[in-house]
Design a protein that fits this description.
122 residues, alpha+beta, OB fold (Dihydrolipoamide Acetyltransferase, E2P), 1 helix, two-stranded antiparallel sheet, single chain
Length: 122
């Protein structure tokens, strides 16, 4: 299978070659490469991407686009039903300790979560 044979909408098997905070790099058997952006992993805010995807894991993904011979894909999560996923669905689900250090550590996360909820509430 080559890039010419893969089309948007196709479901293909890939291997995760690296996991970064912004997404997972993938590769097909034929050494075609691509990325699953963190926003294409699930509809919820992801606190820890490594709770969803591991390096060397084999996944089925849906091809969103191919640009410059690189695949942009979304994860088909029907195959993954693990219950240890770390999603944040509301601010009350955050477990934190009180104090200024904790406030400083969590502020960016809270800001991102608030922006995410505002954008998706429309």
């Amino acid at each position: 299978m080559s890039y010419r044979e893969i089309r948007p909408g196709d479901i293909i098997k890939v291997k995760v070659t690296a996991v970064k905070p912004y997404g997972a790099f993938i590769e097909t058997r034929d050494k075609m490469v691509g990325l699953i952006h963190i926003s294409e992993i699930t509809n919820c805010f992801i606190f820890d991407i490594s709770s969803y995807i591991k390096q060397d894991e084999i996944l089925e993904v849906k091809v969103l686009s191919i640009k410059d011979n690189k695949i942009n894909a979304t994860l088909n999560f029907k195959q993954k039903k693990d219950t240890d996923k770390k999603e944040i669905n509301s601010l009350d689900t955050l477990n934190f300790q009180y104090g200024f250090d904790t406030l400083k550590q969590n502020m960016k996360l809270w800001q991102k979560k608030a922006i995410f909820e505002m954008r998706n509430s429309k």
